[in-house]
């Protein structure tokens, strides 16, 4: 199989982890005899520094022409501390999601048995958890009109949904639920928000087309609580952009660490694969980042982007084997014992490749 | 001390738990020689059934005239399942918050040592946690304009903040932080939302007036994760209406159960005290609800509403003593052992009074 893959390392720890996601893809190509052709492009703070734009036209063009994109992370403390800056790294990520029509963000909460201890949640609560989030990614308060009054004393963001936006992601989520345990939980705030009432109505309609799937509707506040109280009760979770952002970060504690979670954004064309962790400027360049989320993002690219199940499985199994042998990066090591062999980013990356 | 207290039992388990919050106040009046005069009023589904309105004028009038309000819960499955209904119970709660100017919702995460085991989070992660949330309560996407297009295919809610709204709650939160461990974490989504950028700017300004308090700004997705990863790192948490709704429900797992958490809404005049749990229609009338959150709401009324510290402490200590003796309601009992004496709502209520 021949594929063109665009690598966008982005900001912070993005470059150091993406190196290993890319290396994993190269290794898979070698083993299975595929031809993966790589190109690279700038986005975020890294792109602003060079071109003044968070998403240069050249990056967008390359993205459109590629078969899949491997992305690192975005963001920089400079902008976080100065809310008045007009050009911001995150605009690059939001724009590429919109431009490529990446309306469905899949975030599987993959639980490695070996990491049950790394979580702040009790192992007996976690064991057996297997959740697949469908987060809507190109609508909601992320993309609705923003305003700031002239005196700068009033600011607003429009939380808005169109029925077709809810329908298309609902179909994807229901189809996935049919392949899994046939349970779907849709999360909204329909007791307060009109956009959530549209969301709930639409999901109720779509549900009728999937009578074999059991649907539950839950309010976001309750979901944020239930997710840690009893994660096993969830299977496919379908939710809006903002609520999905919050719930999936929260759910990273189920997997032991944010450093373990990968996500796939799909929709109209090219798929976009990235860790769910951020740019983590506090540990950038210190060889402390966990490269496994980038390697698992590569696995998602193989499986969801290219339909290469066996190749994806090899990557996931290798990560599992490395964990079984007791190797850990800092984020997933238990600080209180010496049971683990704690590795830096590069050592962990190399080990997985071996 | 003479005080007029309005009791609004509301919907679902509201009436059965509020009975015990009220009884606790009566007992305190008796012990300390205060005169608490009680009145009662309707709100939510209960009010719609009788008057057609979720917040009848009579209730609002009584509320304005009272010195404090003890509230139960709101909501009904009928409305949750039918997003097209125009008159909804929650409108009553939102309207009374707005009408009484209850802009600051204080949610202390009170950890009883005895309940460390009841949580899904590891006891060693929880031990020593003591968080006080300040949730903004009369702005945000809760109160911004709502629209639905004529073809019903587009729906929106305006997420909007005015600078003064952020300022007044920030002052309250900083003042509380000065009385506590002098750390404040403000939660927003300033990397995406304009209203959050106004929020962050404003908090940065107000922070200058409290140089003895250490301020941290955190994105909501990260906060939802950190809260369960390492709850001890938080002290005073200041956040917007929607984010506060989500974070405080999530935080209820820190306290072992939603059934243990009370909240105080304050602002321009009369204080409003309520459990953070909802109407829980699935257990209504089954003598399964936990009355402790209502009793602890009464304690908050005594302390924050009336400045009666000793009286409040007696109530909290009594709850603590009852837990120490091994008494539990269903939500906080460990199902796997027989160590606890599991009580119904009424038995637990009576026990605390004794
Ligand atoms: C960086 C930020 C804009 C982004 C988001 O909120 O979508 C991130 O948190 C994510 O979840 O991918
Ligand atoms: C019932 C609902 C409107 C309410 C809210 O979202 O504010 C509740 O969840 C709360 O937290 O008090």
Automatic annotation (TrEMBL), chains A, B:
Give the cofactor binding note.
Binds 1 Mg(2+) or Mn(2+) ion per subunit.
Site positions (Important for catalysis): 142, 189
Q: Which residues does substrate bind?
A: 97, 107, 135, 221
Q: List, alphabetically, the Pfam families matched.
A: Iso_dh
The record ties this protein, via InterPro entries, to: IsoCit/isopropylmalate_DH_CS (IPR019818), IsoPropMal-DH-like_dom (IPR024084), Isopropylmalate_DH (IPR004429)
PROSITE patterns per UniProt: IDH_IMDH (PS00470)
Q: Which reaction does it catalyse?
A: (2R,3S)-3-isopropylmalate + NAD(+) = 4-methyl-2-oxopentanoate + CO2 + NADH
- Its top-level enzyme class, in one word, is oxidoreductase
Q: Tell me the protein's name.
A: 3-isopropylmalate dehydrogenase
Organism of derivation: Pedobacter mendelii
